[in-house]
From TrEMBL:
Basic and acidic residues bias locations: 129-142
Single GO MF annotation: DNA binding
Gene3D superfamilies with a match to the protein in the record: lambda repressor-like DNA-binding domains (1.10.260.40)
Biased composition (Basic residues): 143-153
Protein name, per record: Helix-turn-helix
Top-level taxon of origin: Bacteria
Chain segments carrying region Disordered: 126-153
Record-linked PROSITE patterns: HTH_CROC1 (PS50943)
SUPFAM superfamilies: lambda repressor-like DNA-binding domains
Domain HTH cro/C1-type: 64-118
Length: 153
């Protein structure tokens, strides 16, 4: 990665909402500190519950919308199939609703699809993972970024 691209990426990180993997990469490579990681990577039980709820909701909405796009279905057609208003389907697909199993089953039936739920190991917050060793090339790039005074901390 070029020095300028690296500096821009670190700045974008500080302004945006990075993925857990991107945050881990920047932390591992020494371009950010654990304190720079936003609260969206929770360390408490309550924070983890909120994170899991939001993540699960996002998976459902993303999966359903992708399924609809692949089959050329719009919200109006899904609403007709479910016997709901288009506005209610919009609410369901907003990701802001606490969906019941009954609603999810109705959605699956209307789309003639099926939800597959997988449960496994939790995601370790990036700052708790063990960093991989850096290459000398990465060290050289970090030193160059630091030398121009733009390396964070």
């Amino acid at each position: 990665m070029k020095e300028r691209d690296l500096i821009e990426e670190v700045e974008m990180f500080r302004r945006g909402r990075p993925s857990a993997q991107r945050a881990y990469d920047l932390l591992r490579d020494g371009y950010i500190n654990a304190a720079d990681i936003p609260a969206e990577f929770p360390d408490s039980y309550e924070g983890r519950v909120a994170y899991e709820r939001d993540y699960l909701s996002g998976q459902i909405v993303e999966g359903v919308q992708s399924f609809m796009e692949e089959r050329g279905l719009n919200q109006q057609e899904v609403a007709r199939r479910m016997g709901l208003t288009e506005g209610r389907v919009s609410q369901i697909l907003s990701g802001e609703q606490n969906l019941t199993l009954r609603t999810l089953a109705s959605l699956a039936a209307a789309l003639e699809g099926h939800f597959h739920i997988c449960f496994g190991e939790g995601i370790t917050p990036p700052w708790k993972q063990h960093p991989e060793p850096r290459s000398t090339e990465e060290d050289a790039l970090r030193a160059k970024a630091h030398a121009v005074g733009r390396h964070p901390r």
